[in-house]
């Protein structure tokens, strides 16, 4: 930090994240390439900080390069089918050797405690065990993958008490069958199943892949699970990144709210992703296309029915059907079983790189389910996609709601010129803005 004021501002800026993440469960997975690159000590320091902030951390490690090293030392040829390792008895011994060494390296990294280091006074206990039940992949396209397996079950009932007691849990890419067999798994498969079984709040892949970019070369900071499906179908990202995206989408579809893909080449990438607004990686979130979507002309009746009570009591300015029809492209809605129960509109002002969010309404019967925040997030993403930098709202009744979600008070003079001319001085609406 350059000065005291900068430090204080930084600490205050991360406080909302600290409050939001306390008591949450994060599954953090990283490949063997991270360890090979010498980044394990720094990652251990960052994860110990998450632990100190009250976050429950489950770690899943990979071991591909370490297995390759063991195979080379034993002069055993690596065999693959369609990108999946065929694990025979010799390859399994190499996987066991690699996993054992990595487990010891990870335990040693979390045992650091030198004064004047981030690990001072940490005293973290990391627990590993037979938490992963697996089954064989079997025969694919006539090829027997032998001892290559997939996760069958995660012993979440045994993991939760460890997390509740303040310990970290370590999972290796090996699983065990009820008959006592050992199977070689992928780190990504174990991580996804662990996140789903533990009902984790986040799955974080700390990866060897660089920042994921779109076809135009721009960084992709956020995708919904259905957008990931479209990206994968267009085959526009490298194979390694696509593999991570596929598993991130699988986790979100399984109930994990957020999955992050973060390059470990950036120092402190996990912290930057979690505690800064834009992060340094790609976040995948679950969004049901059938429930949250852009409005169509068929939605006009549902929107009118939703907003009419608020027009009657003066919360909203009255809008006629013709106006809603003309402006329907600005609206987004949340629908369930054909019923519109939330809506909002986004009016862009491209010259000032600003947008107005208006008519944010949620049916009173479902106002405690977080749909207002879903709509706000959706509108922020729409504004960002249009290259806009600031969002503003005018309100007479819901000032506190917007203040709690990052908006700050502003004046009429801060509005775009065209919007200033349309300001209703009789209503005296309060103005709030938010940087995107």
TrEMBL record:
EC number annotated for this UniProt entry: 2.3.1.1
Pathway: Amino-acid biosynthesis; L-arginine biosynthesis; N(2)-acetyl-L-ornithine from L-glutamate: step 1/4
Domain N-acetyltransferase span(s) in chain numbering: 290-436
Primary location group: cytoplasm
NCBIfam families: N-Ac-Glu-synth (TIGR01890), PRK05279.1 (NF003641)
Protein family: Belongs to the acetyltransferase family. ArgA subfamily.
Protein name per UniProt: Amino-acid acetyltransferase
Origin species: Herminiimonas glaciei
